Structures are given as C-alpha cells and as structure tokens.
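I would like you to sit down with the record closing this message with an eye to the fold:
=====
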Amino acid sequence: MNASLAKSLAKVPEVTLVFWVIKIAATTLGETGGDAVSMSMNLGYLVGTIIFLAVFLLAVFAQIRARTFQPLLYWTTIIATTTVGTTLADFADRSLGIGYAGGSALLMALLFGSLLLWHRTLGSVSVSTVSSPKAELFYWVTIMFSQTLGTALGDWTAGTAGLGYTGAAIVFGALLALVVALYYWTTVSRTLLFWAAFILTRPLGAVVGDFLDKPLNAGGLALSRYSASAALFAFILISILLFKQNAARTAH
C-alpha cells in the first residue's frame, strides 16, 4: 500500500454487516470468557480485571503502533475490551456493592463524558476520523466504557428488572432493529446511530452469553463457559479469515 493511500484510510474497519456479526459474537465471547476466568477458574473479579486490563493495554498499544488496519489485531483488541468490561462491571456491581443500576448510571456518565471530551478535543467522534494516535486513544477508551456499561446494563435488565435472559435479549434486539430502521428510513446522524448500535450490541451479547452458560434454574442453558468461549472464538476467527474487511476511509 502506498503512503498516500495509507493516509486516506482509518485504522478501523468499514461498518458492514460482517462487522456487526463479528461484534455481537465478540461481545458474547467477552461475557463467557470473562466469567470463565473470574468464576470458573475462581480467580475473582478483581484478579480477572487485572489480567484482562493488562491484555487490553497491550492490545491498544499494538493497535496504535500499527501503521494500517489489521483485522486480527483490531478484533483482538475488541475482544480484550469485552472481557475486561465483563469483569470490571461485575467487580463494581457485586464486589464494591454499587449495584447494577448504580453501576450502569456511573458507566453511562463515563461513556458520555468520553464522547464529549473526544468531540471537544478533535471535533468529531466519527470512526472515519480514527487515524491518529490521539483519536485511537479516545476510540478505545470510549469502547472500553461502552463494553463495561453493556455488561452492567445487561445484568440489570435480565436480573433486577426481571426480564430474564431471553426477555432482555428481545428488548436489546428490538432496540437494535429500531436503530437499523432509523438508518435506512431517516436522516438521523450516522455517527449517532453507529454509537447507539455499538453500545446496544454489548448488553445483547452479555445476556446471550449469560443465557448460554448460566444454570438451568437461573434461566440459562448451563453450557460450559470454556466450550462456549472456544466455539465463539472459532466463529470469530473463521469470519475474519473468510470475509475480507476493508479499512474505513478517513473524512476529508
């Protein structure tokens, strides 16, 4: 790739159907994988958070150092945000006793604060601007907050609100369908709709992940967290290898 073409491309993928399919699978993997380390391995939420935070920081460092969009590296970083988001949300909600509602409110404030600061600093929060280290840093911090919020929001909806995993999945699926309808039939800001969809896919993945591995008496399928995580990882890897993803073009 020549230098001028590389400069015209962002270091994130184009937003296509394949992007959203892999994103939902990655958020589901984040839930089963995070629970596998913190719960099945009995390491606890704090130790799990420290482990996944280290992986997240290394992945973000590698992502920022990369000169072009690298699909495997990008999705590794996304998965790192979902796993650290799972254990961090569980640590705040359960170990610190903030509760799902309190945790969701706090994380919502952090997420919107990150987006506001990003916009005030660089003038846009569009993924088409993610081509500089500063923009990438804002991008990944915002994503990490959104993934953590998604876990807390999913747990709150399925548990405290009493909808159960299936009911919560239907709610978040319907909200995503609404975003799709707004995309095709209105002129609502595409950047706003992107972040709305990005945020909503996380609680959807969280409740689907919980549905797969939680006990039968809790409304789940009681599948092995290790097996579910391995299957999701294999699906993501095959999707990345089979379907070509192009880098998003930067805004001019």
Q: What stands out?
A: Confidence is low (pLDDT under 50) at residues 1-7. The CA atoms of residues 126 and 192 lie 9 Å apart. The beta strands are 9-13, 247-249.
